[in-house]
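for the record, two folds in this file. i put them one after another cuz i was lazy. first one right below, seq on top, structure tokens after. the second one comes after a little note so u can tell where it starts
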Amino acid sequence: GEAATVVRPWTEDARVRALSFTGSTEVGRHLYRQSAGTMKRLVMELGGHAPALVFADADMDNAVGEVMKAKWATTGQDCLGVNRIYVERQIYEAFCTAFADRVAALKVGNGLETGVEIGPLMHERAVRKSQEHVAGALAKGSRLLAGGKRHEAGRLFMQPTLLADVPDD
């Protein structure tokens, strides 16, 4: 359901003594404000930009494989999944090329089909948000190395996407 509809009864009811939430910092702030009146205990894992670091002395194949797992193990929809990859300049372009090849090769489709690695996003808003993120990054000078568009698998599917040279903001 819609968070605003579902959550209010929990935050306002004094019988609910604690809430646990995993998600965005924006929603976390909202829950915090709504829970203040009943002094709830809140446990939150809030979104961030979980980084992976790749240094010049790394084994390239191993580094690409490990970052692939860290980002795509749960189809990329995980609050603990890697969102930013910092690569030492000497191997930056080589890593980008190798990683982009692996991202572009991910199999997208129905998760009940054998070999599918990436399924749909949860709803149309998530697809639009993904498209907005890509467009915003490109407008600020990022390079699109893989994906970036809806996938032919259906209306809730995005191509696995890789951007390089993304500014910190």
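(here's the note) second protein begins now
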Amino acid sequence: LDPKSYQAAYWFGRARMSEGKFEEAIKLFERAAALRPEDHEAVAMLAQSYGGSGNGVESLAARRRSMKLLEQQLELTPDDARACILAGVTSSILGDSEGALRYVKRALAIDADDPMLLYNVGCIYCGIGKNEEAMTALERAVDAGFGHREWMEHDPDLEPIRAMPRFQKILETL
């Protein structure tokens, strides 16, 4: 990899994360975040990778850092559906269920049919204990074209529902 390439570090980090190789993903997202300190994407993925690796302290610190960057992004571009949904995920993990639901509503008002957005709505619902709503959102995401089975299998945000038969059925459709 080119050590100065944000894209290489970011996308290779996502690939490693989808394989459940969180320690490798952490190193790559750290590099991407250092290359673009203003970018919320790498820091959000870094937080998720720390969570997947079991490092809750670092995950929480990265989530807080990510939330600041997401808020800055949404001040600049209020109709950024991706930033809204990542802010929703981050809010849910930081314990702000009401904020998470506000971001879900805002993101869905911008683009209610985006498969990746719907997938993240499922992650948010899962994070605030709304497991049935999470399943429905994940089913909608798959129906809309989401097809990343490996990501779903390793996403730490979905841990609370992973063993549920309905979740396993969703995986079987991919």
